[in-house]
Amino acid sequence: MRKQNRNNRICTNEESGKTDFIIDPLLPIGKENAITTQELMRISGCGSSRELRQRIALERERGAIICSGSGRGYWKPKNRQEIQEFIKIMNARAWNTLKAAKSAKKALRTPEGQQSMKGDDENGEPQNVF
User: Fold this and answer.
1) Using alpha carbons only, how large is the chain's radius of gyration in Å?
2) 3-state percent helix, strand, coil for the chain, nearest multiple of 5
3) 49-63 tens-digit pLDDT
4) Cα gap 124→92, rounded to integer Å
5) Burial group, residue 74, by CB count within 10 angstroms (0-12, 13-18, 19+)
């Protein structure tokens, strides 16, 4: 017996935690055959690109290797090289996200109301410190 999981709309089996892949079987093999987000939304029944990304994220968490990158769309890797390229892209995205978070964390370490040591005012304009 199958039932619909109302939280993520992916059908689940009677076994708790066992998920059927919905997106993975729809994907072509090889980067040159990548399917666009719009087409994958249409054939998978996803109502939005956000829902599609959530489904892909869930399937990736559960072991599916779903490649994507640089506006090409989505595909299953045809060889180890495509997997390595995908890993490189994902690592670069993660690194950029971490760098952005690092800058924000650095800003929070400066106590509110503390003046900059550079002599700038709160608008970042240089001030005469003498």
Assistant:
1) 22
2) 45, 10, 45
3) 999 999 999 999 999
4) 31
5) buried
Residue 75: its H or E element = strand 74-75
Q: Is the dihedral of CA 35, 37, 38, 42 positive or negative?
A: positive
Name residue 31's amino acid.
K
Q: Which two tokens stand for residue 105?
A: 């964390």
Give the CA distances from residue 22 to residues 13, 19, 46, 64, 107, in Å, rounded to whole numbers and listed in that order: 13, 9, 10, 10, 42
Token couple for 79: 């060889």
Nearest to residue 46, comparing CAs of 78, 74, 16? 74
Q: Please tell me the pTM assigned to this model.
A: 0.66
